[in-house]
Each structure stands twice: as structure tokens, then as C-alpha cells.
């Protein structure tokens, strides 16, 4: 069946280092792939998305890479800060048909001082 | 803040109680969503409303009853819940269904069913 999964449930990085969070997906028909950040006690926060016809998109300190050949999505965070500690979810959606966000199970990012 | 508020933030209810969760968005969006977030499970979509009309019900038990009186407000009415319904219930909104890739979430209601 369709699924969106994350490679690792936890990731620890030193403050100032770059972080890479990975995600695998199985639905080739998805139009968008999205990354959300969820801090403790809060709802998920939209970070960045990428259309399926792109392979890279950059935001403020974040870059999302999409490899459709191997159905792999990654989120790179530059110069990781303590405020980046959170659970990161990847999600996918087919805007034209199902129109439902399908979420992965999340990766807990911990930034070490 | 995302412009989506939810009340109450915490709720404890017995299995025979009736309660309601409220969501309000101040973003001028036309699509609203209810999600359930359980421990160690991905977010599960429950209901979708677009321009006040329900467009999706993901096989949610009838003990959960949504209501969308206008594009800014969304309710989830709860009755005769089970302990396994304990979870974080999240509301989200987007400009409309065509912009469902960019959803804004509220802080959630932490529900405990005793």
C-alpha cells in the first residue's frame, strides 16, 4: 500500500552542524512532498514543500531534496540550532485526486550543546 | 502562532460523557481538517471540510461527529468514547483543497478518555 516512512526515529547533532533527515515514499503519483516540524506541546508547523517536478528547493537554512528515481526525500538543516530540536515529519499529497496529506511517523531531532 | 486556535487544550472525559472540541482559524482559509495523533503512529486524517461542506470522512466511528458552521470554525463532537480514543486531536486549515500541501495546524487538544 501507499506509505511514507522515515529512515531513523531519532537523530542527534551538535549545535552548529548540518542535519539531514531522510524519508522514503512509495506513491509515485504524489504532487507535493512536505516537511513539518512539531515541537513539544505544539501542532505541526509547515517548513517547506517541493513539487514533484522539482529536485531541490531551498528555504531559510533548510533545503529539501527529492530523488524520484529512488523515491527518497530529505531535509537538510544548515547550522543546526537548539530551537531546531523537534520531531520532523515528511508528508505527501496528490492534489488532483485524493487531496489528503499522508504523514510519515516522524524523526526526533535533538541538538546537542 | 499559526492563526489556528483550539480549545480546550486538555480534556479528560469519561466514556459516557459528551464533549466538544473547537477550532477557529483567522487566516481566511476555506478548507479545514481534523487529525488524530496517537503515540508512535503517524497523523491520521479524520475529516475534511471545504467551503463548509464535508468532503472526506476517513472511516471515522460515529462517536466522532464533526460540524462546520462556517469557514472559520470547526467542531468535533464527542460521545461515548473509548480509552483508545485518547490522543492529540489536531485541527488544520488551508486556503482550499487545491492548496492542501500547505496546511496550518493548531496546537491540538490533548484528550484523555477514562
Task: Give a verbal description of the structure.
Chain A has 113 residues and is an all-beta fold. Chain A has no helices and 11 strands. Chain A has strands at residues 4-6, 10-14, 19-25, 32-38, 45-51, 56-58, 62-67, 72-77, 86-93, 102-103, 107-112. The termini of chain A are far apart. Chain B has no helices and 11 strands. In chain B, a hairpin with a 6-residue loop joins strand 4 and strand 5. The chains are: A mainly beta (113), B mainly beta (114). The A-B interface holds A 4, 31-32, 34, 36, 41-46, 49, 89, 93, 95, 99-106 and B 2, 4, 6, 40-43, 45, 48, 55-56, 58, 90, 92, 97-98, 100-108.
Q: Which key phrases capture this entry?
A:
heterodimer; A: 113 residues; mainly beta; 6-stranded mixed sheet; 5-stranded antiparallel sheet; B: 114 residues; 7-stranded mixed sheet; 4-stranded antiparallel sheet; globular
What's the quick description here?
Chain A is mostly beta strands. Chain A has no helices and eleven strands.
Low-pLDDT runs of 5+ residues of chain A are none
Q: What's the tally of helices of chain B?
A: 0
Low-pLDDT windows of residues of chain B: none
Radius of gyration of chain A: 13 Å
Strand content of chain A: over 45%
Report the radius of gyration of chain B as a whole number of Å: 13 Å
Quaternary state of the chains = heterodimer
Distance between the termini of chain B: 31 Å
Total count of strands of chain B: 11
Give the overall shape of chain A. Answer: globular
Query: Helix coverage percent of residues of chain A?
Result: under 10%
Note the main sheet of chain A.
6 strands, mixed
Strand percent estimate of chain B: over 45%
Largest interface: chains, residues each: A-B, 23 and 25 residues
Derived from helix and strand composition plus strand pairing, the structural class of chain A reads mainly beta
Q: Judging from the principal axes of the Cα atoms, what is the shape of chain B?
A: globular
What's the total count of β strands of chain A?
A: 11
Q: Could you state the order of secondary-structure elements of chain A as H and E?
A: EEEEEEEEEEE
How would you classify the helix and strand content of chain B by structural class?
A: mainly beta
Number of helices of chain A: 0
